[in-house]
Specification:
Rossmann fold; alpha/beta; six-stranded parallel beta sheet; 14% strand; 8 helices; 207 residues
Length: 207
């Protein structure tokens, strides 16, 4: 297999936190802007940095507004889990000598503290690129290219695994193959990808 490096998105790929994300956005937007969105209407807030969404909502201070979101998110931690098979998949890839990285739109504080399941995994990754690590963000190529540089890997030897159009576009812009994670309820089959995976264990089968 040509891949020596696999980079992962976090939300909806490693971490099953969709319900907590949606309910936090619903709560925070109503709190700050007095607007009620149904869960089905909140797709615009997914896959992009939280400060970007707050800016689009018209927040005078997007950073402060997103800090309110982060505080509200703490109340939904109990809803967050890893997708089944994630830890076993990461352990298997490490045993096979695959370099692992993360590219996420979360900021570093979110990665380190915003749930109980992701921080224990971080030691498995040689590079973690967050919101404040780059000037441009997904779907631009810069976050993924930054991660590969830190892993000392070339785009042609890497696979980026995610679950959204933003992830697919980021991979395409960086010249990296894209692996579509379908274990998130198999709901994103229409997203263009180099290959698709029904379960985390499928990635280990590549090697």
């Amino acid at each position: 297999m040509k891949y020596s490096c696999i980079v992962f998105d976090v939300d909806g790929t490693l971490v099953d936190n969709e319900l907590s994300l949606f309910t936090t956005w619903q709560q925070t937007i109503e709190q700050l802007f007095g607007i009620h969105y149904e869960i089905a209407e909140l797709g615009f807030a997914m896959g992009v940095p939280g400060e970007v969404t707050m800016k689009r909502m018209g927040a005078a201070d997007p950073k402060a507004a997103f800090e309110v979101w982060m505080q509200n998110y703490q109340g939904h931690k109990s809803q967050i889990t890893l997708f089944p098979g994630i830890e076993e998949m990461l352990d298997g890839l490490q045993r096979q000598g695959v370099r692992l990285g993360i590219v996420t739109s979360r900021n570093r504080a979110e990665v380190a503290h915003n749930d109980n399941v992701l921080p224990p995994l971080l030691k498995r990754f040689g590079a973690v690129v967050c919101f404040e690590d780059t000037v441009r963000h997904k779907p631009e190529a810069e976050p993924l290219l930054t991660c590969l540089q830190r892993l000392q890997a070339q785009p042609r030897e890497a696979l980026y695994v995610g679950d959204s159009h933003y992830d697919a576009e980021c991979a395409a812009n960086a010249g990296v193959d894209f692996g579509l994670a379908l274990w998130n309820l198999q709901k994103n089959k229409e997203i263009p990808s180099t290959m698709a995976f029904s379960a985390p264990s499928d990635l280990c089968a590549l090697f």
